[in-house]
Amino acid sequence: MTGQDYALIAGLVVILILGLIAFVVGVRRSRSTQLPPDETSPFPGGKGADTRERDAPPLGTTTPTLERPEAAGTRFQRLKARLSRSGALGNTLLAILSRGDLREEDWEEIEETLLMADLGLGPTTELMDHLRTEAKVLGTTDPERIREVLRAELLRLVDPTMDRSLHVQEVVGDDGDKHPASILVVGVNGAGKTTTVGKLARVLVAEDHSVVLGAADTFRAAAVEQLATWGERVGVPVVKSDKEGADPASVAFEAVRQAAADQADVVLVDTAGRLQNKSHLMDELGKIKRVMGRAAPVREVLLVLDATTGQNGMRQAQVFSDAVDVTGIVLTKLDGSAKGGIVVAVQRELGVPVKFVGLGEGADDLAPFDPEGFVDAILA
Ligand SMILES: Nc1nc2c(ncn2[C@@H]2O[C@H](COP(=O)(O)OP(=O)(O)OP(=O)(O)O)[C@@H](O)[C@H]2O)c(=O)[nH]1
């Protein structure tokens, strides 16, 4: 071969490589559905404003088979056996009340049992007063009759009249336009927010709602990945920023806008965990809500509370509620917890209902809260 031949071959190789690179870049561009420039973004050109992409399957992967989550209606029934440790509360109370002709130390034992279950001081006193009266009037040791009285009293405290529905109907804004129901999810670190957003998406998908998720926990990269996986499993798009530490308000805003563009029914926005005593983080939450509200009225603010955190959980609840007007509570980790009384305590404290309870780590282990089922499980 002559020098000219070598030069020709080298030229051909270079052209081939360049062609290959151009092809790969072209494919990548077309697969990644880049969002259009955000002219109305409150943070034009700000952190995260230019990097958001909707989830697209990575190159070379096939679309996963979508899961069909369990319908909401059957969940509590299936999971209520996991409240068995809260059942210790009911059994202890029944055992004491059945002694008949109760002495002061019996009443003290009842009080202690209720406080240990995190029922809270007010509800405990109230329940004791009612039970004392009933016990006198009834003058019985019949366990069945006592169970009936206790059931009625506990149910009254849990309050079956509260509206526990998740408001997912479309909303008409001040602009007269229809918007998807937007739901902001807040809480302290590790309470179970990301998991709850993923599980809630499944509840909504099972009810045939179209959903968009917003990964506004930009603080913890793993949370974004976690949420992306939840979304992927049920075919729900996840709006996220690829920049770590991006402005969460910006991501939340974009998620709501994306949901509107997709004509989705509901958009669920996950946020980073924050301690209630860090005022700048609580202010940030207020900002996320305000900015989301510019895209569509915020329909619900769900506070995720770890049921095992007791009185500390109650303090968190109050601060979060002051910052963002909580409309509903999701109590997680109620499985295996003996602290079922927190349902009553937190509702009393905030005046808002427990709407969902987490009863396990499985994907469908989140159930709409059922007051009667709950009290029955405690007294089982
Ligand atoms: N047993 C049980 N575990 C739960 C429940 N809900 C959440 N978890 C677990 O709690 C842990 C924390 O959940 P995450 O969803 O990551 O918590 P997070 O609030 O998003 O955490 P940060 O983003 O760090 O604030 C995970 O191991 C979950 O599986 C529940 O109802 N029962």
Automatic annotation (TrEMBL):
Database matches in PROSITE patterns: SRP54
Domain of life of the organism encoding this protein: Bacteria
Subcellular location: Cell membrane; Cytoplasm
UniProt keywords, alphabetically: Cell membrane, Cytoplasm, GTP-binding, Hydrolase, Membrane, Nucleotide-binding, Receptor, Transmembrane, Transmembrane helix
Transmembrane parts of this sequence: 6-27
EC number(s) stated in the UniProt entry for this protein: 3.6.5.4
Ranges where the SRP54-type proteins GTP-binding domain occurs: 353-366
Any single biological process term in GO: SRP-dependent cotranslational protein targeting to membrane
Entry's family note: Belongs to the GTP-binding SRP family. FtsY subfamily.
HAMAP family assigned to the protein according to its UniProt record, in alphabetical order: FtsY
Binding partners and assembly: Part of the signal recognition particle protein translocation system, which is composed of SRP and FtsY.
Protein name: Signal recognition particle receptor FtsY
Species per Swiss-Prot/TrEMBL record: Bowdeniella nasicola
Name of the coding gene: ftsY
